[in-house]
Amino acid sequence: MAPIWGFESLKPGVDVGKLIPRIPRQGIDPRTGEVDFAQIARRRYFTCPNPAKVNIPCTVEQVRGKTELRVSSFPHIAGIIVVDPETLKIQSSNSVFCGALFGYEKPDGMGIDSLVPDFEKILHILTREDGVQLQDGIVVPEHSFRRASAILGLRENRPDAAASFLRPDGLPGKHRDGSELKIDVQMRVVRSAKQSTIIQETVIEDEDEDKGGNNHDDSFSILHSEVVFALWITYSRHMHAARSGLGVTSASASGTTTPLHQPSPGQTPAHTPLEISSDSDEPKPRASSSSTASAITKQLKEVAMTAAAKLTGGPRSEKKQEKPPVPQVVEPAQQKKSIDDFQIIEDMGQGAYGQVKLAKYKTTQKKVVLKYVTKRRILVDTWTRDRKLGTVPLEIHVLDYLRRPDLRHPNIVEMESFFEDDVNYYIEMVPHGLPGMDLFDYIELRSNMEEAECRSMFVQVAKAIGHLHTKALVVHRDIKDENVILDGEGHIKLIDFGSAAYIKNGPFDVFVGTIDYAAPEVLAGKPYGGKEQDVWALGILLYTIIYKENPFYSIDEIMDRDLRVPWTMSDESIDLIRCMLNRDVAARYDIKQVLEHPWCQEVDEED
Fold first, then answer.
1. What domains can be seen in the chain, in order of their start residue?
2. Would you kindly state one Gene Ontology biological process term found in this protein's UniProt entry (predicted)?
3. Is the pLDDT of residue 232 over 50?
C-alpha cells in the first residue's frame, strides 16, 4: 500500500472512495452505495491519489469469490502511440500500455488530445515559434515538450505555471476516469510501412444475355509508406508522482509570457535538420533534370548488376571499381580542419543526427563522405566525456573506439576523422562504392534475387553485428536496410551509429531506431539489453531482403501477429527468420546462433 497511498496498513471502516475516488458505485449518488463489481471488471483501470494528492494509474480487480479488491500499480510505464499528423488521431497503440497508463485499452481513432490534452497547443509552440520542422526523421525530445508545456501554462495563467517553468516535471495527461496525470513525451517523425486492401469490382458479361453477368469482387493489397508521429510516452511513479500541481485549468492572476529560446543541447537523432542560419547546416538544393535522373538510374542498375554477379559468383561487369584506400587515423587536434576546406558535391541523404553529404577536399580533390551532427539536436544523455576526445556525442566516441586496430571490421564503416565548429560536428568517412547505394535502393532495383545473393548480403551484416556484440561489446540499435551500403563488388558495410551504445551501459529504457524494426519488448516499454533487439532487427532485415516487404504493418502486429510467409525460398531461411523473430526474448537466437545456423553456413560452401 505504501507505494500508492503512503501507509503500510489501513484501519477498518475507511470508505473505499477515499482510496479510489472514481470507483463505480451502485445507486444514484456516485459517492455512496455498494461497490459495483461488474463495472469494475469492465473498466479495470482507475487512478488513486497519493498523500501529495497526485493521481497514480492503477489496475483494480476483484479477488475471485470475495468482496475484496486487488489494487496494483506499475512503478514505470512506457510505450509507443502512433498518431496521424493531419488529424492528430491515434492510428496504432499497444493495448497493455494504454490501458495501464490512460485506462483505454483501445484508444485507436481517438484524438491524441484525449490522452495528452495540451498536445496540439504544444505542437503549435514547437512548430510556429521554436521553428521545429516536423519532417521525416526529426526527433523532439522530452525537455522540448516540457518547456513548451511550461510556456503554455504561463500563457494560460495556470496557478502552478511559474513553478513549472522553473522546474518542469512533465506534461499533463488525462486518464479515462477524468483524473490528471503527469507524463513525458518524446516524438519521432517517421516514415512507416502501411498495407491497404483495395477492393476491385470486375463485371464480366457473358455472350448469352440470358445468363446475365457475373460480378467478381477481387481484392488485393498494396504497400506504401506514410509519415506518422511516433510518441514515446513514459511515466515513472518516483518522478511524476513526487509532487502536486497538475496543470489545473482554473484561472489566476495575470501572468507574463516568457520569450522562447532554442533548446540546448537540443533535439536529438534527427534525419531532417531544423532550419538555422548557418550555411554549414543548411541543405543545398539538389540539381535535377530528366537526363541526369536517367543517367543516375542507369549507373545504379549497372552497379546493382555487378554487385549481384559478385554475390552469386556469376560473370561481372568488365569495369572494375577501384577499392577505397585504407582509412588513416587523423586526430582533429593535430590540424584545425574546417568545413570551408571542402567543396560539397552532393546531398546523399539524412543520418541519425543530421545530413550526409559527398564532398571533396579543395586542395587534394580527395572525395570523402561528411556526416553533419547538429549539436543542438543531441540528447543530453548521449554526450560523453573522453580524455583524448573531450566532450563529444556518443556516436563519435563509439566510432573512434571501433577504429582501433584490433576492433576494425571489413563490414563496419570506419571514421577517418572528425572536426567541429559552433554548429556541427563533422564525421569524415571514406566513400564505399557508389555514393548513396544502400540496401533499400539495391532491393528495389533487384526484383529477383537468388538465394545465394540474399545469403551473402545478410551474412555480411550478421558478421558485423557479431563483431559488435562479441568483441567490441557495442549494440547498434538501428539496423535496417537504409543503414547497409554496398559497393560495386557486393561488399557491404553497416553504417549510422547514431543510436549505438555500449552494452555495459544497459539495460536501456528509451526507444531508439525505427518502429518497423523494433522488437515487441521495446515497444511494450520494457527495459532491454540491446543484443536481443539487434537480432530481432536482423530478422526483419532478412525477411525484407527475401520478400521485399515488412513482415508486420503496425505495432499490434509486431506484438502478437503470426509471421506471414508469402512463399518459401527454402525451409532453412524461414527457420532462421522465425528463430530471430521469436517474441520470447530468452528463447530468441543470439548472434552466435545466427551465424552458426545451417542457412548461414552455406555461404562458405558457395565461396
1. 2-72 (no CATH), 77-240 (3.30.450), 439-606 (1.10.510.10)
2. negative regulation of glycogen biosynthetic process
3. yes
